[in-house]
Specification:
The protein is mainly alpha-helical. The protein has 2 domains: 17-162 and 178-212 and 323-346, Citrate Synthase, domain 1 (Orthogonal Bundle); 219-317, Cytochrome p450-Terp, domain 2, CATH 1.10.230. It has helices at 33-39, 42-51, 57-69, 75-83, 90-100, 113-134, 148-157, 163-175, 183-193, 198-209, 212-215, 219-231, 234-243, 261-271, 278-297, 307-317, 325-346, and strands at 17-20, 25-28, 31-32. It is globular and about 60 Å long.
């Protein structure tokens, strides 16, 4: 039976993650995402996804050191970034730079965790280098005394970031490290299944993430928050939008039929930061109002905030340009992609689905 988009078709077995859309569950390696986001760092959860267990103190220190040692851009990559046209979108820049990494060292079959760590370490530096380049600002080299997320913000802005902003962004990045067999992860596994190298598989994933149906920036949520901030009346703005038949950006999810567990985790983290940033405070207030109005106007639909809603609030608080939203998502998802590439390599079968011919058979006269 034809299933367009392979919806509902099981294409692989995995130990990496599990999603239950009906229950609103997201599990990494058997652990609830809410517990991970609340109690562990980016590095610890990345280690878990790659290795299947949490690191001990020595293993964590070693991972952090490996990430730090692989942050610096190689000279040839800087030259490539300098030659790319300024109008080239950032996702295409990341795809090009990551693809070029394959020429720097041996990336054959089979992939390994050291390669996964290197791609994860390089991606934020590529993003920061290009962003500052387009802003006409000097490149800020990575600092080896800063952990992964804090260093990313430091390279973007050139100063030590606000602790609340680091905490919020780190939570967001943990929540977006992995999300099952989505389009970009599937693309990575398909490429890996041909026994191509990890760089090629990651490049396939980046190209897929670029598509607006997958990694599109939550700019619509920013527009909503801006409009409400200007109007000073969240309920009025929300009711008017729904009356006009508009979609309320940041609410509802195609997978989760109840509350998005990632949005719940982000909200829990941001509740600790109430009063420290006006945009985070506004988002908390808007969510409460929106859920109330949606329940009234669209009863039985179970429309709640999704991870995009609070991600937009965090990006707004950090003063991150919308052009950086999907690249930042990419910087975190590199961990999940590479975990799947590694898993694919351990029990590999090339993907070869069938297609159904719907044309007409013709004969020559």
């Amino acid at each position: 039976m034809l299933q367009k988009g392979l919806k509902g078709i099981v294409a692989a077995e995995t130990l990496i993650s599990h999603i239950d859309g009906e229950k609103g569950e997201l599990i990494y390696r058997g652990y609830e995402i809410r517990d991970l986001a609340k109690n562990y760092s980016f590095e610890e959860v990345a280690y878990l996804l790659w290795n299947g267990s949490f690191p001990d103190p020595e293993q964590l220190d070693f991972l952090k050191e490996q990430l730090k040692q692989n942050r610096e851009l190689p000279i040839y990559m800087e030259k490539i970034l300098n030659l790319l046209p300024p109008e080239m979108d950032l996702m295409s820049v990341i795809r090009t730079a990551v693809s070029a990494e394959a020429g720097n060292r041996e990336y054959g079959w089979k992939p390994n965790i050291s390669q996964a760590i290197r791609l994860t370490a390089l991606t934020p530096t590529i993003i920061a280098y290009r962003t500052r380049q387009l802003e006409g600002k000097q490149y800020v080299a990575p600092r080896n005394d800063l952990d992964h997320v804090k260093n990313y913000l430091y390279m973007l802005y050139g100063s030590i970031p606000n602790a609340a902003h680091v905490e919020a962004l780190e939570t967001y990045m943990i929540l977006t490290l992995e999300h099952g067999m989505n389009a970009s992860t599937f693309a990575a596994r398909v490429t890996a299944s041909t026994e191509s190298d990890i760089v090629s598989a990651a490049t396939s994933a980046i190209g897929t993430m670029k598509g607006p149906l997958h990694g599109g920036a939550p700019s619509g949520v920013i527009d909503l928050l801006n409009e409400i901030a200007l109007a000073g009346d969240a309920e009025k703005v929300i009711r008017e939008k729904l009356d006009r038949g508009e979609k309320l950006m940041g609410f509802g999810h195609r997978v989760y039929k109840t509350r998005d567990p990632r949005a719940i985790s982000l909200k829990e983290k941001l509740q600790k930061l109430v009063g420290q940033d006006e945009w985070l405070d506004l988002a908390m207030s808007v969510e409460e109002t929106a859920i109330k109005v949606l329940a009234e106007i669209k009863p039985g639909r179970s429309l709640y905030s999704n991870v995009e809603f609070y991600a937009a609030a965090i990006m707004k608080a950090i003063n991150m340009d919308p052009a950086l939203f999907t690249p930042t998502f990419t910087a975190s998802r590199m961990v999940g992609w590479t975990a799947h590439i590694l898993e694919q390599s351990e029990n590999n079968t090339i993907f070869r689905p069938q297609s159904k011919f719907i044309g007409t058979f013709k004969t020559e006269k």
